[in-house]
User: Fold this.
Amino acid sequence: MIAVYARVREWARTSDPEFSRLHMATRSTLACLLTATLCMTWLMARDSAITLAALATLFAMIAPLFLRERRMSDWLVSLALLFVCTCACFTLSALSASHPFLSGALLLSMVFLGMLCHALGPRATGCALLALVAFYLGLYLHPAPHALDAMLALSLLALPVIVCVGRVLLPPKGAAQPLSAPVSIRALLQTDLAMLARHRHHLAWRPAALATIAALLALLAGDEMSTERSMWAVISTFVVFLGTHSREGTLARVGKRLVGTMLGAAASVLLVSLFKGTPGMLVALMVLSVFGWAYFILHAYARGVFFITLLVGLVYGELGFAIVALAVLRIEEVVLGCLIAVALAAVLMPSSATRRDTAVLT
Assistant:
């Protein structure tokens, strides 16, 4: 055991010298676990549906990955912006769920704006990703007004949990905890707007247009497979174009997404079948999946996709869905989204060689 531990530690130190990924993944997992526990305990005590905790749990899982500021005031502003963006998009999707044309238009607008601004930093990328995922959640659950109010209220529980985990239990290295020089939120937002004006040439116009066209095609085609889960195809087009600037980069991202999705879907079918009727084991596997996703998603994309696909399968399996049919549908939707992205990239995106030649000439 000692030798195995030493080898694992050496591998972790080599791949993650300062343990920054471990630190980040632990923050995300702990915040998600604590938020889910608090929300579900409160809901079960009142005989309410545990799905009402979905928004809070999802936010606590994703938001910590994009809270990178060391100064407390900047960190809190980022948390507030991520939270407002998440709740606003979830509310819009819940209210527009019964109006397909309106919800589709809102979705495409979010894809365009998210892709346009993602290069401005982790805060912008986090808002874009949370907006899209929260919109999917609202469309899928389409909660009634009273359930919507309850989910938004419960999501407030995630805020103190994230603050406690991210600034007290596992603070950023070198973080200045006290606010030695109080800064108003208005001043910080003005600084962000000024930065946006200075870096407007960094806005990703071409990827935004491509991702929006791909999302539209994926939405139309995905609805033929499943009106409730066609967002899997849309999300695939979004993340495939996120951060890629050439045909080769897009193809590489597509390959990683397909491999991670297929392996994750197969693993979810196997594990749900093996541990059906043992919720404790499935919950433990969910926690492990959250950690694996948070650890790998920003650095080893295929592994990150594997764990998020596994997590989705475990959650749906525990909720009683037919896991085999669900896994097949997820693969089909992801393949559809990836094929659309590849087709558009092949026609409209430059090759990496062309980009190099252009850089040399300029």
Q: What stands out?
A: The longest helix spans residues 247-274.
